[in-house]
């Protein structure tokens, strides 16, 4: 394939001069200097090569270096999207309940596919959810993803702090797909409330913020933790569970009910991705969604989701 690479204000992209397809280009500079970064790059390539789903970003090509002797940087070509959920949330763009439900539905479809392949994403956050002008959503960035059947220990330091489940904050290495469900709950509420749920400054502050909202866990809810983690929780101040409805008065009650099921302290009690998809809030509203966006090239306006 012949690629013509050029830069824009928002991303690096390229044109396949044979097919006319525009793609996004991810450059990993000095990819082999750091062993951890090299492994993450290889992991993402290996996983995405075998994934084929409309809510998971697709790799189009790996662009080879002109000479093997100067193979220092890795260039990965992905299908081209227009923006990400982080940019939409931070913008002045209005979003209806139907839009939020439709985005959630697509996240859950992609996540169900990923989990069905025995893969944990482990880094779900708004900036890793790509969008285009048709409101299509695709999960990206599999550098921290992990196949659950691998036998070596699971690392605790995964997931960007604000979207990290309690079991990760408490150094559990025996976590499951429930960590991704927690992240989705945080993302969904952030999408509706337009600000992060738990913007912790550090590890300790993060745990305090989530306990201030969902309350101190009961002894039964501590059952999945090791003794050191249990002792740590027991010595913390007692927090009473807040009312989600009072804290988020502008969010629809059915959406709040769904988020509460995703944000349970005990991962064994957390709702599963399969159950999430069939929850009442996700009934066929997305089928009748009128999501036509303007075609102007002013990326500062992103998309007119109210059209």
Annotated CATH topology of the largest domain: Transferase(Phosphotransferase), domain 1
Using the coordinates above, name the CATH class of the largest domain.
Answer: Mainly Alpha
Terminal CA distance: 38 Å
Q: What is the CATH architecture annotation of the largest domain?
A: Orthogonal Bundle
Query: What's the rounded overall pLDDT mean?
Result: 84
Number of helices: 10
Q: State the major sheet.
A: 5 strands, antiparallel
Structural class: alpha+beta
Order of helices and strands: EEEHEEEHHEEEEHHHHHHH
Strand % is 5-15%
Write up what this structure looks like:
By secondary structure, the chain is α+β, with helices and mostly antiparallel strands. The protein has two domains: 3-79, Phosphorylase Kinase, domain 1 (2-Layer Sandwich), CATH 3.30.200.20; 83-288, Transferase(Phosphotransferase) domain 1 (Transferase(Phosphotransferase), domain 1). The chain has ten helices and ten strands. It has a five-stranded antiparallel beta sheet, covered by helices on one side. A three-stranded antiparallel beta sheet has the order 6-8-9. Strands 7-10 form a two-stranded antiparallel ribbon. A hairpin with a 4-residue loop joins strand 1 (3-7) and strand 2. The longest helix has 20 residues, at 97-116. It is globular and about 60 Å long. Mean pLDDT is 84; it is low at 1-10 and 283-303. Residues 1-282 form the Protein kinase domain. It is an enzyme of class 2 (transferase). Belongs to the protein kinase superfamily. CMGC Ser/Thr protein kinase family. MAP kinase subfamily. Pfam families: Pkinase (PF00069). It catalyses: L-threonyl-[protein] + ATP = O-phospho-L-threonyl-[protein] + ADP + H(+); L-seryl-[protein] + ATP = O-phospho-L-seryl-[protein] + ADP + H(+).
């Amino acid at each position: 394939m012949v690629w013509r690479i050029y830069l824009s204000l928002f991303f690096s992209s390229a044109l396949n001069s044979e097919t006319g397809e525009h793609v996004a280009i991810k450059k990993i500079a000095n990819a082999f200097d750091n062993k951890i970064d090299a492994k993450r790059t290889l992991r993402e390539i290996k996983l995405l090569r075998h994934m084929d789903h409309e809510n998971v970003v697709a790799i189009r090509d790996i662009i080879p270096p002109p000479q093997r002797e100067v193979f220092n940087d890795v260039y990965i070509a992905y299908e081209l999207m227009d923006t990400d959920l982080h940019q939409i949330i931070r913008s002045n763009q209005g979003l209806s309940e139907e839009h939020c439900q439709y985005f959630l539905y697509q996240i859950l479809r992609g996540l169900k596919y990923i989990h069905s392949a025995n893969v944990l994403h482990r880094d779900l956050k708004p900036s890793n959810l790509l969008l285009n002008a048709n409101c299509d959503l695709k999960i990206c960035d599999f550098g921290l993803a992990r196949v659950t059947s691998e036998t070596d220990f699971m690392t605790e330091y995964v997931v960007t702090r604000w979207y990290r489940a309690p079991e990760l904050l408490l150094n559990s290495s025996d976590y499951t797909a429930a960590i991704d469900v927690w992240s989705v709950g945080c993302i969904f509420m952030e999408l509706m409330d337009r600000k992060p749920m738990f913007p912790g400054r550090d590890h300790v502050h993060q745990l305090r913020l989530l306990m201030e909202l969902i309350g101190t866990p009961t002894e039964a809810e501590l059952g999945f933790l090791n003794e050191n983690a249990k002792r740590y929780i027991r010595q913390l101040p007692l927090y009473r569970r807040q009312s989600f409805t009072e804290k988020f008065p502008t969010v629809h009650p059915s959406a709040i009910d769904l988020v509460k099921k995703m944000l349970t302290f005990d991962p064994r009690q957390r709702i599963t991705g399969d159950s999430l998809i069939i929850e009442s809030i996700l009934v066929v509203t997305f089928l009748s969604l009128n999501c036509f966006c303007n075609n102007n090239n002013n990326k500062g306006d992103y998309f007119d989701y109210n059209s």
